[in-house]
Description:
The chain has helices at residues 24-36, 55-62, 79-90, 110-117, 135-152, 168-171, 184-188, 216-233, 237-264, 271-302, and strands at residues 9-17, 42-48, 69-73, 93-98, 123-127, 164-167, 195-199. With 334 residues, it is an alpha/beta fold. The chain has 2 domains: 9-233, Spore Coat Polysaccharide Biosynthesis Protein SpsA, Chain A; 237-308. The protein starts with 8 loop residues before the first strand and ends in a 32-residue tail after the last helix.
Amino acid sequence: xxxxxxxxxxxxxxxxxxxxxxxxxxxxxxxxxxxxxxxxxxxxxxxxxxxxxxxxxxxxxxxxxxxxxxxxxxxxxxxxxxxxxxxxxxxxxxxxxxxxxxxxxxxxxxxxxxxxxxxxxxxxxxxxxxxxxxxxxxxxxxxxxxxxxxxxxxxxxxxxxxxxxxxxxxxxxxxxxxxxxxxxxxxxxxxxxxxxxxxxxxxxxxxxxxxxxxxxxxxxxxxxxxxxxxxxxxxxxxxxxxxxxxxxxxxxxxxxxxxxxxxxxxxxxxxxxxxxxxxxxxxxxxxxxxxxxxxxxxxxxxxxxxxxxxxxxxxxxxxxxxxxxxxxxxxxxx
Length: 334
């Protein structure tokens, strides 16, 4: 149980919304029962990700009934990662929980996530063990989850589940862009964060349509490649470029050997020249890669690597002398 503090919030719930006007009221209604049992201060941050429907108007209508509600309206559609990061930046909680706003994630699972965090973990990810989606979404997701687990070393059944709980000092330090929200646990592993996973409920979509199509598969695979580069070589780029040099070195040696054989054994005219040019070009590529690696090392030396350090994120708090949490102050819609 957290220590109460008049200037702090223990739990921030961040929910990105994009054209979810029909889901806002039912979603908040689900929180009434769940949050009524909380013995600590909390807030809900709704992030309108440039919706073109009436999502923002409905949020404004609901605000008078929800003193714990805060809201952010983005100028345009920045994507789920951008919306989540905006919510992180405006959150005040020691713990941050994220979930989708389409009613497929269930707020009733939040206490389980918090209980798992209390066991000493820094991130607890939801696992939609009984996923209520069409097979065309489930099958590619399973393949992607397997690849991410295999390549990053952070083994989770369901990277795509938005229902996750984070220690704030663990997630706020991450530099995220594109569609990296699904990779938050893998990125946090850079800092030594402890990651766990629990099964959560998953409901069929009630309103609207999914924002993701089949073409998202290609984006996911490109993100997997990018995230592996970040995890493995962000602090040691020369090592990464050196590994990229190896194919060029092998090709250069092979071409050089063939050029030598063509010259010694008087092969067909032009072959020795062709292999020699191929060998030189391969070694030139190797030198170029090494040069980029050296430049990368210099850039890392001069850059801010705070996203690779996790400060006191696993420290335990004592419950001795805790006080009753103060009432949550009235918040306006941002």
